[in-house]
Design brief:
By secondary structure, the chain is of the alpha+beta class. Helices cover 48% and strands 23% of the residues. The strands form 3 sheets. Strands 1, 2, 3, 4 and 5 form a 5-stranded antiparallel beta sheet that branches. The protein has a 5-stranded antiparallel beta sheet with strand order 6-12-9-14-7. A hairpin with a 2-residue loop joins strand 10 and strand 11. Helix 4 runs antiparallel to helix 5 (148-157) and helix 4 (119-145) packs parallel to helix 10 (316-340). Mean pLDDT is 87; it is low at 310-314.
């Protein structure tokens, strides 16, 4: 009935079903303060936690509450049927489009909330990101070399609040990476240095996979990032959502890219069954970490308001000092290990910590 709402699932509940929205509207409460909605016809809703739990072995409870309007037509999809559906192109495409929409809308919430943060909160965020990147770099070296003394350093830092805070900010921004099969060799295009791959404001009819070289990402004529990891997928959001490009991409050197046209996507995915599945899984991860980031930023906003109205508790300068102390300890441990173990491969990590 009109005016009524039906709760599909609540935060912290187990992901027991996905949902098929024949028509109508679903509201997602990313936090007590933030909500967004997805509306339309024949949409697959509630896939993030199922993908993480059953396809990535990341046991994940519901990260947000979902409510449909009373006039919406919606039915449950069992986990078994959902996983079977992920083997078909139409189902995968549907799931990817909804996930891309959720990533886009939660990005907007994050940007809105970050804009409310003042200088000290931004310092805390930046310090946490530095801490995470340094610990993660040590972790990558340990995975490569399996040196026990590297693991001793990791044990002290992988579970800290600062690491978790930085992880949420970084992982929600991670690009999708895939291995390109030989079936896509005919779709490779070489771009000479300085040439434009796609322009800001144009329609997104292609997605791309970087094979070699590097790409500058420009917004309003300003370089904001570089894409240089082979296998990185980009342009997928505009393609999935029929959105215009949000940035200009320019070849930084002679660059080889696999160009996947939207009209050819089904044909390509029939040859390379993992391509769209990897896109969907990566979008689910980004949505998951976006929700963590929303709550992290909200906590900072709440703490700021509490500090403005009460003299109790730890003040922001104190939190900054604590994170800087943690960073200093981390830097000293890595520097000492690099010196004692003659491990010059750790020098770039030391340089990362300013």
């Amino acid at each position: 009935m009109s005016g009524e709402f039906i709760k599909l699932y609540t935060v912290n509940a187990p992901p027991e079903n996905a949902y098929f929205l024949r028509n109508g509207n679903v509201y997602f409460y990313a936090s007590n303060m933030d909500k967004y909605s997805v509306k339309g016809n024949n949409l697959i809703i509630g896939s993030t936690e199922i993908i993480l739990t059953h396809m990535l072995s990341m046991q994940t409870e519901r990260m947000e509450t979902a409510v449909s309007t009373g006039e919406s037509s919606i039915k449950k999809i069992s986990v078994k049927k959902f996983l079977e559906g992920m083997k078909s192109f139409p189902f995968l495409m549907n799931t990817s489009i909804v996930l891309a929409k959720q990533v886009l809308l939660t990005n907007r919430i994050i940007n809105k909330n970050i804009d409310q943060l003042e200088g000290v909160e931004k310092i805390i965020r930046d310090l946490a990101i530095t801490y995470y990147k340094a610990v993660n770099a040590v972790n990558m070296e340990y995975d490569k070399r399996k040196l026990p003394w590297l693991n001793d350093i990791l044990k002290k830092h992988l579970t800290t609040l600062t690491f978790k805070r930085g992880e949420a900010f970084c992982k929600s921004q991670q690009s999708i990476t895939v291995e390109t099969s030989h079936h896509l060799s005919d779709s490779m295009v070489e771009y000479p240095r300085g040439s434009i791959i796609c322009s800001e404001g144009t329609s997104g009819e292609e997605m791309y996979i970087l094979q070699a070289g590097s790409i500058d990402v420009e917004i309003k004529g300003n370089k904001v990032a570089t894409i240089d990891q082979p296998g990185t997928v980009f342009g997928e959001m505009a393609l999935l959502l029929n959105e215009t490009r949000t940035a200009t991409l320019r070849a930084n050197n002679n660059t080889v890219i696999t160009v996947i046209q939207k009209k050819m996507l089904k044909q390509i995915c029939e040859k390379d069954g993992d391509l769209l599945k990897n896109v969907a899984v990566s979008l689910a991860r980004r949505h998951y970490f976006n929700l963590i980031k929303i709550n992290t930023v909200n906590k900072a906003l709440i703490e700021r308001d509490l500090n403005n109205t009460s003299c109790e508790g730890e003040n922001k300068p104190g939190q900054i000092d604590k994170i800087r102390i943690d960073l200093g300890k981390l830097k000293n441990e890595i520097s000492e290990a690099a010196y004692k173990k003659n491990a010059d491969f750790l020098d770039p990590i030391v340089d990362l910590i300013k």
